[in-house]
Design brief:
The protein has 265 residues and is an alpha/beta fold. It contains 11 helices and 8 strands. Helix content is 35%, strand content 11%.
Length: 265
């Protein structure tokens, strides 16, 4: 079984469509993004998980209780209801994708330690340009600094999910893939995934204009708390000296910048 971990707007539909085209059963009903739907039971499972996360204030969360607590029956019940069509299907190759899986990754891993996990990564500057259901983490029971700025709220959602994944010990079957690499180096990237999954993968059409959209965006799309992840995954870092204060900066001094203030390093 295969699942995809990654925040909404990370380009996860590309790998979902690739898996589907390769004969992997991805659930009974998929939406255009390749998500297994309806996902209401998954959303309820996310809200159960959030009760075990402690907000420290600012942009800091303590996940230790979630990592150590016994998984509550309400979570298992909701998750199994969401995944029912996959769990009950007889096809040997199966999996699912919905971005909210990222919000409960630690417990999915404990329930299914032996499945294949694909961590899908995209430049966070592109991730926060468009809206997604997980933009307002309070909808899922997660507390964070109040803000009226939409981009800052999306950036907080991105950071929360990145921090949650990074706080979790990785399973034995784990691979990290940048969306940009699938677009620009499809053959090489799919060969990596084929070696990881042990199955041949279909080649779907990848549009070059799906990456680096932040370059043509006139809103705030960079915050300084993106920097560690962007360095880790080799994305361009703006010159911090040229940044203006971000919207509703947090006590840690989070700052944002717009398109014209970047340069590669």
């Amino acid at each position: 079984m295969i699942t995809v971990i990654g925040r909404g707007h990370s380009g996860t539909r590309a790998i979902s469509h690739t898996l589907y085209a390769s004969g992997v059963y991805m659930g009974q009903t998929l939406n255009p993004s390749g998500d297994l739907v309806p996902a209401h039971a998954m959303y309820d499972a996310c809200r159960v998980f959030a009760r075990y996360v402690t907000w420290n204030g600012d942009l800091s969360w303590d996940f230790s209780r979630a990592h150590n607590a016994e998984i509550p029956p309400a979570f298992i019940r909701n998750f199994n209801r969401y995944l029912e069509s996959v769990l009950n299907h007889s096809r040997p190759l199966k999996g699912w994708k919905v971005p909210e899986t990222t919000l409960v990754f630690p417990w999915i891993l404990r329930m299914y330690p032996d499945i294949h996990y694909i961590f899908w990564i995209r430049n966070p500057r592109d991730c926060i340009i468009g809206s997604h259901k997980t933009d307002d983490m309070r909808d899922f029971g997660v507390q964070y600094p109040e803000t009226e700025d939409e981009r800052f709220r999306r950036a907080i959602s991105w950071k929360y999910q990145y921090d949650l994944v990074k706080s979790t010990a990785k399973p034995k079957r784990w691979i990290e893939v940048r969306f940009e690499d699938l677009v620009t180096k499809q053959e090489e990237t799919l060969e990596r995934l084929e070696a990881f999954l042990g199955i041949p993968l279909a080649r779907i059409i990848m549009r070059q204009d799906t990456i680096n959209r932040w370059r043509h965006d006139d809103g705030v799309n960079y915050f300084d708390f993106f920097e560690p992840a962007m360095r880790e995954y080799n994305y361009e870092i703006p010159e911090l000296a040229g940044l203006a204060p971000g919207p509703n900066p947090s006590p840690s001094g989070a700052r944002g910048c717009v398109l014209e203030e970047w340069s590669s390093q």
